[in-house]
Amino acid sequence: MKKVKLGFTGMQVSDLCLGCLYFGARDSESDSFERLDQYLDAGGNFLDTANIYSHWINEKTKGGESEALLGRWLKKRGNRSQVLIASKMGFPYPGVEQGLSEKQILAECDKSLQRLGVDTIDLYYAHTDDLATDMAETLGAFQKLIDDGKIRAIGASNFRAWRLEQAWQLADRHQLTKYCCIQQRYSYLRPKSGWDFQPQLAANDDLLDYVQHRPISLLAYSPLLNGAYVDKRKSFQPQYMGPDSEARLKALAEVCQDTGHKANQIVYAWLMQTTPQAIPLVASSTREQLDEAIAASKIVLSETHLNKLNEARDSVLA
Where are the beta strands (DSSP E) in 227-299? Predict the structure, then answer.
């Protein structure tokens, strides 16, 4: 896998980030260790988790399962220096309310550090925006964690573009650390105008324009739309249904036929090569799925194919 810059931080991360959402909860420890080993062996170094993963799986899961699994893997493999760990806080889970107050940020970071068994988290996200808390308080808390050596950089997720800019200007005025990246729902298909996925936010035109004018990275979660691109048993969510998606799916099928690659691989390749470039989050439960994703990082789309994918749209809107 290739390495790319993480915003303005100087950190070099894999162009595919391994999502650890179900590790230690839905996915067994042995299967999770196998995927982590496979990713690392392929040259990957960027692991994504969160304090809430994955409290909703069953009555036994309470949150923190993914972080704890990663902690056990890191300890057993002795490879902390080989990976960059991203975790998040802000959404509620059993015993913890939603929010980005100083008290909550500091407490949740300490819990994550303990579960991960590390001294420092490389990238720490505000997992969701908090309009009820003064942004200066939130950024000040993150700065304290950086000053204490508990985290290296901060990112945002499920933020609107205007809030990212507000945070950027506030950080400038008060000499606080800025968000280096934004992680948002993003795929080749675009949701219909005005539709969203609360509490998740999809990358819209405003956000895509914004990241081209600030030195921050865009990470794409849910890039494969739950497998609907390739699994006929699954359907796309209503937010995506319409003539625009039909035009895009037609273009996607034509590029797949021309190149001989699978739809999921072309989606990954497009995310990594379109403008603005994105780092896709890969969620793979089998060796074959992860092999397929890793192979996508080597695909080079021609200008003709990129134009075909980018220009596909509903003729009524063109």
Answer: 278-282
Q: Which two tokens stand for residue 110?
A: 């300490």
Compute the distance between CA of residue 96 and CA of residue 108 in angstroms, rounded to an integer: 9
Tens digits of residue pLDDT in 26-84:
999 999 999 999 999 999 999 999 999 999 999 999 999 999 999 999 999 999 999 99
Residue extents of the structural domains in the chain: 3-242+267-298
Phi-psi region of 129 (alpha: psi -120 to 50; beta: other; left: phi over 0): beta
Rounded Cα distance between 204 and 164, Å, is 14
Q: Which residue has the tokens 């573009």?
A: 161
If residue 217 lies in a helix (H) or strand (E), which one and from where to where?
Answer: strand 217-221
Cα–Cα distance measured from residue 66 to residue 90, given in angstroms and rounded to the nearest whole number: 16
Evaluated on CA atoms 200, 202, 206, 212, the torsion sign reads positive
User: Using CA atoms in the order 89, 188, 295, 51, what is the torsion angle rounded to 10 degrees?
Assistant: 10
* Nearest partner of 84 among 56, 54, 53, 43, judged by Cα: 43
Q: For the purposes of burial, counting CB atoms within 10 Å of the CB of 195, is it exposed (0-12), middle (13-18) or buried (19 or more)? A: middle
pTM (two decimals): 0.95
Q: The domain 3-242+267-298 belongs to what CATH superfamily?
A: NADP-dependent oxidoreductase domain (3.20.20.100)
Integer Cα distance of 3 and 24 in angstroms = 27
**What is the per-residue pLDDT across 144-168, written as a single tens digit (0 to 9) for each?**
999 999 999 999 999 999 999 999 9
Question: Helix (H, G, I), strand (E, B), or coil: what is residue 75?
Answer: helix
Burial of 39 (0-12, 13-18, 19+ CB in 10 A): buried
**Residue 20 is encoded by which pair of tokens?**
């650890």
Report the distance separating Cα 290 and Cα 288, nearest Å.
Answer: 5
pLDDT in tens, 200-254: 999 999 999 999 999 999 999 999 999 999 998 999 999 999 889 999 999 999 9
